[in-house]
Amino acid sequence: MVAAAQEVLAGNRRGWRALLPFTGPAFVASVAYMDPGNFATNIQGGAAFGYRLLWVVVLANLMAMLFQGLSAKLGIATGKNLAELSREHAPRFALAMWIVSEVGAMATDLAEFLGAIVAFYLLFHIPMMAGALLTGTLTYAILALHRYGFRTMETLIGSLVGIIGICYIVETLLAKPDWQQVLHHAVVPWLGGSSSVLIAVGIVGATVMPHAIYLHSALTQERIVPRDRRQLFSIVRFSYADVAIALTIAGLVNCAMMYMAAAVFHSTGHAGVADIATAYRTLTPLLGSLAGVVFLIALLASGISSSVVGTMAGQVIMQSFLGFSVPLWVRRLVTMLPAIVVVALGLNVTQTLIVSQVILSFVLPVPVIALVLLTRREETMGPMVNGRWLTLLSFGAAAAILVLNGILLWTTVHPR
């Protein structure tokens, strides 16, 4: 694949075939934007508030494109990842950043693991504790494929993304959403009381993922190394195309999750659907068994693929901030524990998922601010330094996240 990329950079391959050697990193990162946390927040948001929070999904996805594009550029331009550069440029804060990032990684892994467990339980009637062990085993087996090269892993993850996308095409055909409402609420902002704000912040936390921002820079830092300035600009342009395609697919899937819930649950008087299991059990009698099975297949593909990506990201975060790593099987085992505790205590899985996404939204400013500050430094980025308009846009997106978090705190303390 590196040889094919060099052919493109030499001008020997053109058209859509020229893009193929550069695709992959964004599709791996995009899994984080279709994980079970998205299922939980989007289903609850659509069931409770109809189409009215679709604008949050669109806004969050646009911010995700911005930050993932910057992360990919950072890795290509510097040959280092975001966590490494954060430790290098802010050593006094490295330990605190690592701790916060690890909290985010644990919240991420909790959501992903629980999603797969629920899917195994509902689809195959596998007990949740056994489902936890099965999910852990499958995740480690997929991670072991990394020894065969990055392209093998990218292809497998891309295939799981394709399965999720196909499932939601089927769900859209079955749900028959009100397209006028979809288009209107995708661009017209609305926020109600504290409950809708909680879901909105959860959507942001579930969409713009801290660990994906760290991981993307690691995936691009040594994947295809530019030999000169011209190649550097070409590789970055191809990476932007990779981000645009992968995250457009992820954004459409997220919108589909919400408008399906709005069309099937909110519009039929089932606004109280608040968890994944209830959504499945309500979906089947309303749209038929096919809709329920397709929904669970998408959830299973989401849970397994995002758990793999989450473990990869956690390894990058630990290794880059602290300078050492632990074996993948050890990290996989340790990060399984929160999900096993949730299952053992019989806690509400979907509410746990939503809370985990809110935690992610509060963790998110750490990598986002570090990313924006680093990519605006000419001594770090060289010719790929952000222009003034891009820096302002990035700071604006980071400020929007902080404002949403502030609104959540205010509405929690002063509920209406």
Description:
This protein is mainly alpha-helical and 416 residues long. The chain has a single domain, classed as Amino acid/polyamine transporter I (Up-down Bundle). Helix content is 78%, strand content 0%. It has helices at residues 2-9, 25-30, 36-49, 54-78, 82-89, 94-124, 128-143, 150-175, 179-187, 194-207, 210-220, 229-264, 276-287, 289-322, 328-345, 349-363, 365-375, 378-381, 388-413. Helix 3 (36-49) crosses helix 16 (349-363) and helix 6 packs antiparallel against helix 16 (349-363). 53% of the residues are buried.
Secondary structure class reads mainly alpha
As a percent range, the share of strand residues is under 5%
Mean pLDDT over the residues: 82
Which CATH architecture would you pick?
A: Up-down Bundle
The N- to C-terminal Cα distance equals: 56 Å
Low-confidence stretches: none
Any chance you could write out the topology, listing elements then pairs?
Blueprint: H1 2-9, H2 25-30, H3 36-49, H4 54-78, H5 82-89, H6 94-124, H7 128-143, H8 150-175, H9 179-187, H10 194-207, H11 210-220, H12 229-264, H13 276-287, H14 289-322, H15 328-345, H16 349-363, H17 365-375, H18 378-381, H19 388-413
